[in-house]
Description:
The chain is α/β, with parallel strands linked by helices.
Amino acid sequence: MFEFDNRTILVTGASGGIGGATVRLLVQHGADVIAAGASQDHLTAIAEETGVRTLAFDLHSEDAIRDALHDLPLWGVVNCAGFGGEIATPQETDVEVFDEVIAVNTRGALLVTKYAARTMIAAGRGGSIVNVSSQAALVALHGHISYAASKAALDSITRVSALELGRYDIRVNSVNPTVVMTPMSAFYWGRDEIQGPFLDAMPLGRYATEEEIAAPVAFLLSDAASMITGVTLPVDGGYTAR
């Protein structure tokens, strides 16, 4: 039930850590993966490593997304592209940064869902969409006003999409990871004064690996999750269960 039998799955943000781990795992389980990103240059490494097809388009542009996806036969989608924005309080936040976070994390994922769902419906084979959200959508985290808003909105898109697409046997779910320690996240989450209290409050007491996020993404895509839709699944070491 955890095999994909050449089902075609689009993974956005495929050049990133979680996106790349997801591509590798899906390929391992027989998926025909299309790795998507902002530019072809960013996708070269994952394509050379795994042999996947690539597709470059600008998540800011509805025209670009429509042109890229309008005749692309898909069975599944992973909306993994993301932008972290800034660490700021509500009173300090830069609204231009807020707009960019929403544009990528929320609007971009919605547009991919919009056009991918059309081809999935036309194919009549059902399918699965997984949105990579965040624990920041579920609990308040200091400094995460923009990022949290974008991911909470993404979770709402997940639920409404699950409601609307269920009649076509298309499932839509979110995974909500805790921190994955990458070079991008280390500038904040690697600080002793941030890392210590955060991990002390987490039952498992450690950050996640990219592979630990990719695995539940693959599960929710797979037939093993055939009766699961509209959920937001924390993958957070128990942090949001406190």
